[in-house]
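We were asked to recover a plausible sequence for a given structure. The inputs and outputs are reproduced exactly as logged, with field labels preserved.

PROBLEM: sequence recovery
POSITIONS: 181
GIVEN STRUCTURE:
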């Protein structure tokens, strides 16, 4: 399995903040979140099968590291272009301690893409005047993306967008779908 430095976490439990098609985001401290990929492997009793699955696990680890590097690079490009995304921190080993992992007893260390934790409201769940404000901020931020050479069909809707009342702005929280155009 590919290795990365251990991220210094400051809270014992890591609450699940969100789940997508290929990853789960956990709060690993008050200021940071970690995106962890969803890969499930069953290890049997047959030692040959176990070795084959271990080889697959290592291959997945290498592939995952490359995917996280790509996502980190696009996140850094977006952040440096002043697009509203979580500040990317890097690729680290994190410990996931949550009820589903028996508080970290089962496979607690995970390779993860670590980023700034955004405290806000899912944009697609806003209502009334706030919804109108969020839609306007979203339109402005999408225009900024296009002006600076970025595109994401996934972000045309308010899914994967959070309204951060402290910034009075929206934040694109799943940056892996952005592309340079």
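RECOVERED SEQUENCE:
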């Amino acid at each position: 399995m590919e290795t990365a430095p251990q991220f210094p976490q400051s809270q014992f439990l890591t609450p699940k903040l969100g789940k997508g098609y290929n990853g789960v985001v956990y709060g690993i401290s008050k200021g940071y979140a970690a995106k962890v990929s969803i890969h499930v492997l069953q290890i049997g009793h047959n030692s040959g099968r176990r070795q084959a699955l271990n080889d697959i696990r290592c291959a997945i680890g290498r592939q995952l590291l490359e995917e996280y590097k790509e996502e980190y690079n696009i996140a850094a490009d977006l952040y440096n272009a002043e697009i509203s995304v979580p500040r990317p921190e890097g690729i680290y080993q994190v410990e996931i301690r949550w009820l589903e992992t028996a508080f970290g007893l089962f496979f607690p260390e995970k390779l993860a893409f670590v980023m700034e934790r955004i405290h806000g409201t899912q944009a697609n769940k806003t209502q009334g005047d706030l919804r109108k404000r969020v839609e306007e901020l979203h339109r402005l931020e999408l225009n900024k993306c296009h002006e600076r050479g970025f595109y994401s069909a996934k972000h045309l809707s308010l899914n994967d967008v959070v309204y951060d009342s402290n910034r009075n702005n929206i934040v694109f929280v799943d940056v892996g779908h952005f592309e340079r155009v």
